[in-house]
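Data card: per-record layout.
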Amino acid sequence: MPAVVAALALIAAQAFTGATANAAPPAGACQNPDSARAEVPDLPWAQQMLEPQRAWSYSRGAGVLVAVVDSGVDADHPQLRRPGKVLAGRDFYLAGSYPGNFDCVSHGTGVASIIAADQISGVGFAGIAPDAQILPVRISDRDMSDQGQALQIDPQVVGNGIRYAADQGARVINLSLAGLDDFAAIRSAVAYAVSKDVVVVAAAGNSQQDTTTELSSYPAAYDGVVGVGAVDIDGARISASQIGPYVDLVAPGDKVLAATRVDGHAYEDGTSFAAPFVAGTAALVRAAWPQLSAAQVIQRLEATASPARGGADSHAYGAGIVNPYRAVTDGLDTAKAAALPAYVQQPPDQAALDEAAWAHGVTTLTTWLTVAVVAAIVLAVVAAVVVPRGRRRQWRPGRAAPVPVEPAGAEPPDQLFLL
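The structure for this 419-residue chain is written out next.
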């Protein structure tokens, strides 16, 4: 076992119990491997929220290699076993020339499944970019001790794994690990990957104890890295998800479904399982927009994020919740907008103006003639009624007939009523 030179916490997945495991890691590689789990048929809430299938008619991540630097990836899982889905990779934890396509604890398998698990009959869960390839890079054999504490990892092993992934042509690297200390071996390896145009995605960490203290987090805080926090089904930051300027985006990280080694699924918590939602979305974008640099992909992920509770550029929520559909489809028509033609003022049509003026004049004249005719008729009628009457009375004023006086009514006698 490599010497532990510093503390770098591999963010927790829970230890599992269940049926007997059937996977076959190299002899002696796993002292106490986790057991298989039952399949979960339901469509998970995280996939319902993000709706990655909306983007699949435009991109499924084909041709993009995503490195999972983690506890390994079990290539025998039914949703990962399609030929070419999970490459052999490499084990940097054990001495020798072991591959990385086995897993003792399911952490790396779960992360890889969120990125690229295939759809299979009877299971609602699938990865964000089901046609992406996975490069497993094994840098640890366990994520938790028997006492439930995060285990330490050799930073040099992590750095070696990151450099290997970049050299193997990975377009995206997922780092579901975090620590409070800045290690030169990891910092330089991340810078190397960024220089090779790799989108590096890292978990923000699960060490938050309150709502105000900002903790350090590496490798999320390194330049060129997308730091990912975790939210729950209501879009609220989970209490352990760290707060800081390194949080660029958030994604589901509370009771999210992921594959387990050998077979089946388990519900997981933490920013470890939020990061692969962003890594998978980055794979979708790199497949749909191959001309974009890693920096431009990151810019696109942030610009198309769904609004989160913290508002824009929050240290708790970053730019918002990753949005696979918008990240892929916004601005798909890359052709420049056609320039509007120059405005040329046309000379007036004098003939049309003359015709309009003539029509207006005719209308006005007709209106006045009609008014005059109506007035003449009214005067004639008045004259025909008034003149003969005036002549008969010799134009003397007349008096109205007097109004008859009604006799005063007699007052009724007083009466009594039964009330």
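Known properties of this structure: Residues 9-13+43-329 form a domain with the Rossmann fold fold (CATH 3.40.50.200). The mean pLDDT is 87.

See the next section for split statistics.
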